[in-house]
Amino acid sequence: MVEEGKKAPAFSLKDQDGKKLSLNELKGKNIVLYFYPKDNTSGCTKEACNFRDEFPKFGKLKAVILGVSPDSVDSHKKFAAKYNLPFTLLSDENKVVVEKYGVWQEKSMYGRKYMGVVRSTFIIDKEGKIRKIFRKVKVADHNKEVMDALKELK
After folding, report:
1. In what order do the strands lie in the sheet with 12-15?
2. Which residues contact residue 118 at a Cβ distance below 8 angstroms, ignoring those fewer than 6 apart?
3. pLDDT of residue 154 exceeding 70
4. Which of 45, 87, 125, 132 could cross-link with 149 by S-S, CB 3.0 to 4.6 Å?
5. pLDDT surpassing 80 at residue 32
6. How many CB atoms lie within 10 A of CB 114?
7. Which positions ≥6 away from 45 have C-beta within 8 Å?
8. Rounded CA gap, 22 and 139, in Å?
């Protein structure tokens, strides 16, 4: 189980340009690792655009933003281009990382049960430890909650 204060599970995934990125490569940086269900859906688009709109502020806090979903590299590329997203989107088509972080769970909509990503955000510090976990995220003002948590890392 992933918990605050524990080491973040390692991973290596392809970004929207098809380049591999591993958590180890980002040691020494604060990381906002946010998991979202699907590119181009209303809540996910709003969440991504909120991070985009506040991106310079995250930069001042020396934080790297990584969005992760089971969508393909190609889907991420189109999503990032369409909304001019200045941060990295990672493709977890095999659902390895969503499983590791415990965000691949049973959900239900209109009485139908299915497996999917539960919108969640993990703040990982420069040493690779999880400092804050936001589970079942509500999109409105989530970027501000994340920023407040990052300010505490200084």
Report:
1. 20-22, 12-15, 88-91, 63-69, 30-35, 120-124, 130-134
2. 35, 103, 104, 105, 107, 135, 136
3. no
4. 132
5. yes
6. 8
7. 79, 83
8. 26
